[in-house]
């Protein structure tokens, strides 16, 4: 039954019983120690659940979880990407700036959602929510006796009753009494000053407080933790006004929930559900050369049927993506949430010219991949090899970042066995199908089975056949309502699928559907038996197996993580790119709450178990999140999770994208906005921790903004590093708000599979005034403060801020400070 909307008072009362008893305004769970309460992530999840309840969404599907995770990641990133920005954290009485940041981000949420760029909309929403949530912990709103959300923050252009610059707001806490509660002296709205930010604390103003606040004095007013003092993995902490923490967390949830309601009021029902990820993504990249006419017709017919059959159901895609390619062109990419518009785009495709080989297949895949949501599938149809196969590394980097499986349907005799296709399919958990052109409509049916909002991966194998048959066993649990089993091979083969009761699956069995293609065995099995299933494969050549199901029980996330964030506000952040072999690292998994006795395994592509391990929960408020130390294998591996479902039946799940451990690392800069008509330089640090080698550096973006990569190659000794500059220049005709996805890769010239990467998304903005480094439309002390906060830092260092490196020389120095200082209005006095 749909939950009745709650009144303001009812919701406050509800939250008091709904929320955990301890809270903490850190970005995410801490590593290696129990976090004293909720994180920003937990607060956001609580609010999102209220939104799901309002919409009657009882089943949180895979696509909804991926959408939510994008919001959570963007929320957490504020502590990592903007540590010195007082406006981003509602610190230092910059409450007007804080409010303007929230309003600007929320405008972008609506604009991007209406423009079918929901990934950018979710990121903007996450950033807005972090700042909004910080207001209730960092200001004195609670101490002033308020029990409701602030009526102006995130709603009005003006914030009233803020203490003026010269007004005293706090007295110093007695020496040694860091948790002193009697320090506030004002009836006006204020917030604490934190050391190292763009505003320096004047005498008589409040400290933020906490072990990492190095500003003079003692005490503070933050409510970031639910206890006064303690220890976490990052070190000591103290939260001076911890006793007001439950109210701050309750109001943060309520304010977050209200933001979702406000955004919903500005969008159509369909647009709002797209923002939440209600429905999967359907993404195609299709070769349109002259020889592809019958293939295009077959894909068009089947895809149209898929779209029509899903309209109005919970499987209706939230996004459709279509990228045509040939030689010498690729695109334009169609991105829409409208099924009719997608069908029109398919109908407009036609085979023309060409017939030659090869084609720009990698460029086509990259374009569709850039526009796709995380955690989905992408299908390419071609009869040619890839003319731009050298871009396969960039495609794999982006697919790995987005956790997207790539499937390749190959037709004809124009070099269909391009190694790039197999390389990408194997490393993303996808498959290659070698087909006749008459089978195009049949293989398109495969996308209907795989691209659903509640699919989970159960088994993924890649191997070579020999004289003896190969057997693969996997469990099916009580939560799995349908199986899809796909076996594809390069040569003649036979497949037997055996149920737990010993019977062999036949296409004539009830509930069994076979997709009729010649070089693959693809079955859909409704209501599969619970227990151990077996797949037996015989024949010659190489083959791949993919087993997935429809289920509510899923491995939602598995990441290698590290502690990052501004001091005192640290959490678990994803490691950039791929981890190093043999390295002991932290892992984070988020599993369905009904999973029990979970054991994780690293397995090879052939299914061999390389390592078994367990993880533990250190965040009571996030009961499904588990963390722990693991040792990275020395070769490519896939992550499996095994355990029992709520009924005690054995289950198996996996993360379909594989990991290739790397001895080369990439440190990416913080993503910044791209001014129209101006060049923005990104500095990537590449370090070689393996044997001496030569590396090539490539960059690829989905817009025509990339202008240079310098250097393009470098020789690096063991332990050596270099800085690579990538320049992006949006043309003067570019629309403000356009999102550009840049993938940077460092690849060994001599060794295959030695590569690492970073992916950055940037938004195009109107050209700011010189010196306006925080992009708020004016040059003032806050801009000067940002330069000071990053002063002396070089590209590749965590505190380096590329927006304040005015002369783009890779270091924030006196020249940058002077350029900004000259733009500050005459007579302005900055602390």
Automatic annotation (TrEMBL):
Residues 45-272 form the VWA7 N-terminal domain. It comes from the Bacteria. Residues 467-552 form the Hemicentin/VWA7 galactose-binding domain. One of its GO terms (biological process) is polysaccharide catabolic process. Residues 677-764 form the VWA7 Ig-like domain. PANTHER family: NG37 (PTHR14905), VON WILLEBRAND FACTOR A DOMAIN-CONTAINING PROTEIN 7 (PTHR14905:SF7). Keywords: Glycoprotein, Secreted, Signal. Residues 282-435 form the Hemicentin-1-like von Willebrand factor A domain. This is Dockerin domain-containing protein. InterPro entries: Dockerin_1_rpt, Dockerin_dom_sf, EF_Hand_1_Ca_BS, GBD_Hemicentin/VWA7, HMCN1-like_VWA, Ig_VWA7, VWA7, VWA7_N. Residues 1-24 form the signal peptide. One of its GO terms (cellular component) is extracellular region. It holds the Pfam family VWA7_N. It comes from Zoogloea dura. It is found in: Secreted. One of its GO terms (molecular function) is hydrolase activity, hydrolyzing O-glycosyl compounds.
